[in-house]
Amino acid sequence: MLSTACSAGGSTASSTDALKVGVSPVPHAQILRYVAENLAAEKGLKIEVVEFTDYVQPNTALVDGSLDANYFQTVPYLETFKGQSGAQVEWIAPVHIEPLGVYSKKHKSLSDLPSGAKVGLANDATNEARGLRLLEANGLIKLGKSGADVSVRDVSDNPKNLQFVTLEAAQLPRSLEDTDASVINGNYAIDAQLKPATDALALEEAEGNPNANGLVTRAELKGDERIRKLAELLGSPQVKDYIKSTFAGSVIAV
Question: How many Cβ atoms sit within 10 Å of the Cβ of residue 191?
Fold first, then answer.
């Protein structure tokens, strides 16, 4: 799937080498391709866009040197990965927020969920916690503690006796055929032709949301000129305008 990077370390990378960046297909690849095709040349930057359909390979490929950077994850997800792997990877800059949403093909509102309803959640710790907090914010459950590490074990009050089904995040859109509702990440919702701004029964608030998706690189590349240029472009007014006009509120520039 990947070609091997010419250099895994910042000391031997050239400022003229293409920057290999791992991304999720939607919206990250779209945003990065906009940068690569419209803005990068003016900065003397070459970008190779490498797509992944899961949340695991972009980090492992970054660590093994197949990538120079990735753009798909949040700070909480990155911190969990670093804690579990010990990898020396660094957050560079936030780019956008994809509000997490609750979706259903069987019910028109959260109040319609029956007793014992099956609710799909992501099976990675970060997004499971986000999903549970969204359910709590909408009055469906109460959690016995706060923080980024809550799980279904921390549900202390469950008046509807919701039954939680945990799946890989990418599979959650497909789960809507089998669940009463599922909590789906914004990128996978958009990829499944769902419109978060109008189709979600409940949506995360964007203001004050700590779950921005951003640019990440290895520690030795943190000072790389190419990384600095890419971070500037991803935070530029042109990219903010592109996100606003393309995603109509389903993706929100930071």
Answer: 17
